[in-house]
Amino acid sequence: MANVVRHRFFWPLLMLVVLLASNLIFTPDFFAVDVRQGHLYGSLVDIVRFGAPLILVSLGMTLVIATGGIDLSVGSVVAICGALACLRISELGDQNSVVGVLMAVGLALGLALLLGAWNGLLVAQVGIQPIIATLILMVAGRGLAQLITDGQIITVNSSPYKLIGGGYWLTVPFSILVALLVFGLALLLTRRTALGLLIESVGGNAEASRLAGIHARRIIFTGYVFAAFCAGVAGLMISSNVSSADGNNAGLWIELDAILAVVIGGTSLAGGRFSLGGTVLGALIIQTLTTTIYTIGIPPETTLLFKALVVTVVCLLQSPAFRAKVFGRRRKPPLPQPDREQPTKVEVPA
Amino acid sequence: METSGEARAILTMTGIGKRFPGVRALDEVDFRLFPGEVHALMGENGAGKSTLIKVLTGVYDVDEGDIVLDGAPVRFTGPLQAQQAGVSTVYQEVNLCANLSVAENIHIGREPRRFGAIQWGELRRRSRHLLDGLGLDVDVSAPLGSLSLAVQQMVAIARAIDISAKVLILDEPTSSLDAGEVGQLFRVMRQLKGEGMAILFVSHFLDQVYEISDRMTVLRNGRRVGEYATRELSQLDLVSAMIGKELAALEELEEQPRRSLAALERDRPVVEAAGLGRNGAVAPFSLTIHRGEVVGLAGLLGSGRTEVARLLFGADRADAGALKVDGEPVNMRGPRTAMARDIAFCSENRRTEGLVAELTVRENIILALQAARGWSRPLPRRRQDELVDRYVKALRIVPANPEALVGQLSGGNQQKVLLARWLITEPRLLILDEPTRGIDVGAKAEIQRLVVTLSDGGMAVLFISAELEEVLRLSHKIAVLRDRRMVDELANDDEVTAERIMAIIASGNGTAPPEAPPGPHGPDVVVLGEEA
């Protein structure tokens, strides 16, 4: 039992389960999942499906934060990529042309890589503080997105494009598959190669890493490119789901949710050790919270306040220092012996 | 400027003792300071200079002893109180606000006010007057950060003396100044001295100490070695007083059957530096390190030892000279270039430049090898465990748990982890910068033995240490640095003694002065022995 409690995913998982369970009170069939017309249906499926863009953005954010940086521009990249893809598709003679859609998607993702390279250049090469460097694109990117959409909301009517964010493949929502694929690839790249170790080393101590022969700058650069790529895919998903691109509101404040997801997932904002699995859990917690707010019918004017309160509770429960203060004393008397070990070992970040 | 004798000391500290957990930082230290003198406080790193200053200015509490300022016993509870009583300190790092103007910096917290509003005109007028008095022509409205470091330092001094200082403490004020700026600072110091100010001066630059100071007090290992008139103490005597200890014991060093330098030099050179240098770091130097050879770098702190190492490893880029590895010219562009040529570097700053505290022992050990392989070719876990296990055992790293976080290990074990990181890369030149600093005696001996073993196995080692005995014991050849310049290189044969190296450090002269006898019992040195 003690081992289970000490596992770094214990607290985020507990949080997720509690949030999900609280929905049962209001919606008794909340956990029901069934197949209708060959499609997977249910509230749980919806949470993952609508959470997919946030999961993607958070995965990219995790690696950037692990290098000791932060990327505020992901929301703008979401808007830009959605806008560019929709613009290209709207210009197609036949919006259902698979080749045309693929080219639009490729172009949008190419631009995302370029934007990531811009961030990476400013941070790794020029040496601007990450929060400032990415703030530039965060603000300017919104303008860029509006420039692409000409200040309008571009609507498209393309069934191949609709697949990305709103379609199904083998009964499973396509966006879930995309998120899973990126998660799997990221996990493979960081944990099956030495990339994860090198990222953690750079985030932990950049100068020591340089003197150990690590291309610290290159690693940091790659982090921003990956984050922008993930944001680009998320942008395609969001615009595809509603078949339109809104330069103003697509991905608005998603960077903040992503940062929150990373932190809830147990990655320190100071950089270093990171956990992609934790981040996915964090993103799911946030999405579940959003869904919960709708299902239990919180009045719209208080949703932000409610969300803030829950997030505060989640963060406090995550903090070992807080737990030790509040629960530590109560747990001591009944089990003095095993508890004696706890203060030293519980220190491991949740 | 005769000061002693007739004049009354403005500051007397007697029997000062200060303990930290496990360390006796100051032990029965006496110190006197007279008005109108520049008094140098000398000692190696960790001798207790800073502690003494901090005890005086109330940063630390005094455990034992008395401080008398201007005839009255004092015991300050903080720097502010000390300042109000007339003891002002200007630190190495100018701790003023770079973004505020000169005038604001001088008067911060004590602005002239009328009805609560700051009188800016009066503020500037007073500042200008004050700086004029020091012979400085500075725009008092300019932001402090726009001025040279020397001028910033003098603004700090102006601020200090404006708060009615009787005693001015200058802690390493010249370490970031160039020669011209030092001259400027000294001019101001002489002027203040002429006005009767008592100045306590701390510097690692011997030449500067001899240029500006009237008297000096030497500390070693928290004890006072002596108080001297600068004119009467030769640089050689000063250096031996600072380094001191075990001078006689050096003679008893165990004889090691080591290969002679001549034999080593027949072997091929691993690294040849010719006129390698970097502006502001170290003057161009030439150094050849052969296979199996241990080259020691001797010199005081800040003499450029680390800078030499960093240039050879490519941690900093040289802006002069040429470097050859295995006879091939190398453009040393960074650590990776050096690593590709089997050069390894253990930095003296384990925490900031060596280890990644939040990674495990295993991860820290394989880091350099993994970096060399690139991210796409991870070292197989079995191989990692094998290597780590072998070195944890060989170097006796405690705890012998490869998954322990390195930040939780003791200093000596951290040093061993850092060593292990480089040893598994199988370097041909190993650069060790202060590998034994701050670690316990046992670990120290182990690391020294390791150096001998490695060099016997054919590895070239550049060994840097502030401890002269250690350098003497391990090196085949010793290069001596002084004031960021390599002043001599000598084969470590029976002729070489600690005194001879001290003489070189002191005089900056390649040839030992004639009055320094070859034996260890030179009269100069014995006279200066601890309580002699």
UniProtKB/TrEMBL annotation, chain B:
Database matches in PROSITE patterns: ABC_TRANSPORTER_1, ABC_TRANSPORTER_2
Pfam families noted in UniProt: ABC_tran (PF00005)
Entry keyword Transit peptide: no
Record-linked InterPro entries: AAA+_ATPase (IPR003593), ABC_carbohydrate_import_ATPase (IPR050107), ABC_transporter-like_ATP-bd (IPR003439), ABC_transporter-like_CS (IPR017871), P-loop_NTPase (IPR027417)
Region feature (Disordered): 509-532
Sorted UniProt keywords: ATP-binding, Nucleotide-binding, Repeat, Transport
Superkingdom: Bacteria
ABC transporter domain segment(s): 11-246, 265-508
GO molecular function, one term: ATP binding
DNA repair listed as a keyword: no
This protein's name: Sugar ABC transporter ATP-binding protein
Source organism of this protein record: Plantactinospora endophytica
